[in-house]
Amino acid sequence: MLNVGSKFQGSDFKSIVTASWEHGLFRATQGFDPEEISREYHQLRTVIFDTIYADLLQETPTDIIRAMRLIDRVIDQAIARRFISYVDERLRELDHLHTTLTLHNQELTRLVNANRENLSLLTHDLKQPLASIIGYSDLFLRQHQKTDDKENYHDIEHIERVLRNGRQLLRLINDLLELSRYESGKIKLDLTSPDVCEIINNVCEMLEPLAAEKELVLVVNCQQEPQKIITDAFQLQQIIINLVSNAIRYTESGSIKITCHVLDDQKWELIVSDTGIGIAPENQKQIFEPYFRCTSQKSHLPDSSGLGLTIVSRLVKLLQGEIKLVSEPGVGSTFTVILPLQMEMK
Questions:
Q1: What are the phi and psi torsion angles at 246 (to 5°)?
Q2: CA count, 13 A, side-chain hemisphere, 214
Q3: Residue 319 in 3-state DSSP?
Q4: Are 277 and 298 within 8 A, CB to CB?
Q5: Cβ(316)–Cβ(335) under 8 Å?
Q6: Quick one: CA dihedral 153, 154, 160, 162, positive or negative?
Q7: In angstroms, what CA-CA distances link 167 with 161, 240, 268?
Q8: Reading across the β-sheet that carries 217-224, which strands appear in turn?
Q9: How many CB atoms are closer than 10 A to CB 154?
Q10: Helices 308-318 & 233-249 angle (0-180, nearest 10)
Q11: pLDDT confidence of residue 341
């Protein structure tokens, strides 16, 4: 390299540069990092000086300095070329990886959308025959309950079991449809100016029989309700239904309290609190995930689809809000939904 540098032979210098360029590509494909390549050239510089050390001692100081500068120049140029080729190869690999990941992501998106569409169609097709089963079972049950024939007692018991499981399956299908519509972006918002207190009272009237079966008290406090909001009334009602029915399901005694009030000139909040079994701290971060089951066996009920709170969290996000949870096992849970007074269409 000293001979090449001192004579400035362009062709030889080019061969060194070419070799350095190829070396950078080779190291890039081998997975070397820049520090390892730099260390190689440091070792190369050391070997060169060790090799010509004896010859340099016989030269004048001027020739020694000139030789060292030439060696440094050639090696520095080689290092520069090698790192350029190394970086180019890495960028090419990254570009190839990005292209591959983009194609894979597009394919996965297509498969996910296809699965969602298939799930939506399947659940929709299941609803009609299931509704028919529930309807005829309910009719059969009411007809036999009017008679005092003790021989039909076991038949009635079987029909009640069919009816109970059919209703549970229908709830699961409805939840799956709702979740599928959200995930596919098919929920279209209809912004109006609903009466929040009226929606809450309608939900409580709807769910009162379920609470009465367990002797639970539904308490509504709308004294500080927002006078005017802009939101989707139906989706808001779905949020309240899921939160209140979930509270009833996991509360054996006591009460469920529903409160709403204005926070400031931009937000209002809906609070649903119960005196139920509560949620352990380690489960609270996962409670909004689909099909999540708490580790406590007491918290799992056979009629729970595991999708209610997932749907709530999705709908709250759809209404541009946020949901918070405060819970203590054996004491109860409080779900707080914070929503804007006026939604903005995006």
A1: -65, -40
A2: 20
A3: coil
A4: yes
A5: no
A6: negative
A7: 10, 20, 35
A8: 217-224, 255-262, 267-274, 332-340, 322-328
A9: 9
A10: 150
A11: 92
Q: What is the pLDDT of residue 113?
A: 63
Residue 278, token pair as written in the block: 């509560």
Beta-ladder partners of 180 = none
- The torsion angles phi and psi of 288, rounded to 5 degrees, stand at -95, 5
Whole-angstrom distance, CA of residue 243 vs CA of residue 315: 12
Q: Which regions in the chain score pLDDT beneath 50?
A: 1-11, 295-302
At 159 the pLDDT is 66
Is the dihedral angle over the CA atoms 190, 195, 200, 203 positive or is it negative? negative
Q: Which amino acid is at 340?
A: P
C-beta separation of 288 from 312 below 8 A: yes
Q: What is the pLDDT of residue 311?
A: 83
What are the C-alpha distances in Å from 34 to residues 18, 72, 85, 220?
19, 19, 12, 67
Q: What is the pLDDT of residues 95-153, one digit of tens each?
A: 877 787 777 777 766 666 666 665 556 555 666 666 666 676 677 667 666 665 555 55
User: What does pTM read for this prediction?
Assistant: 0.53
340 neighbors 267 (Cβ within 8 angstroms): yes
User: Within the chain, what is the greatest distance between any pair of CA atoms?
Assistant: 126
